[in-house]
Amino acid sequence: MGYLNAIIILGGINIIAALGVAIITGYTGLFTIGHAGFMALGGYACAILVTTFHVPFAIALIIGGLFAGLCSFIIGVPAFRSQLRGDYFAIATLGLSEAIRLILNTTYKVVGGAFGFMGMSNLTTVPVVVIAVILALFFAHMFVTSQYGKNCIAISQDEVAAQMMGVNLLRTKLIALFISAFYAGVAGGLMGFYMAYLSPSFFTITRSSDLLAAVVFGGIQSLIGPTITAFVLVAVPELLRVFSEWRLIVYGLLFVIIMLFRPQGLLGYVEMNFAFARRWWNAVFTPHQAKQGTIKGDQ
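Structure (tokenized):
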């Protein structure tokens, strides 16, 4: 049972971080391979708040996410003002992520440097992760279906046309990047308090590539696709740990196959909705209500 709980917790954490990447990459069209850096910022900020300042865990998670979101402006403002996009923006995010990791690796006084941040409790449990995933899905759905989400989709399709239609490119991109980094920061905090330990080695390019793979495989402009693949990409390597060293090779091969035969991803453009719940409700309760109305009419 403990092994199953570990897969559920790690899969849920990966889902939250992947939803952040889905917003910036899947909906806004900006590829990122540096979200591990935002996970590190949120994780370390949350750890310091809880262990040093005794801030409640839930509040520390939110503050850690906000800290990661604010730090995203470090790369977002200059990158978007200079109109970086495509591979150039991806390389910029990678550079920021590696800079964050190296700073943490050499800062011993507060965060423990290469030895890591220790003395943390195991506060991340299955119920906590399940609640966090549900809230993350709900707010991500609210964002992508809002006007800001529609502006992000317009930017991903054609920036020039979006700007001519009155979309503020800089503000929309910064908002999308902020929310994306916030999700990553919350995921980093959850991971730290599941491992009860944080190390810069947790936040390498491998973790960023895992998140990007979840979005590319799951589908562009979709939340349900990355949600499914983010969990699968955690569960399968855990179940087949003997093949973990071949993971990046397999990812590279799958990237090529997906781009050649289904560039939109497995569930690309399939939006998460609750139509199935409405259909179930109508199927179960509507006939019963209609029948009751008929009986009252006969009486």
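The two ends are 56 Å apart (CA to CA). The mean pLDDT is 87.
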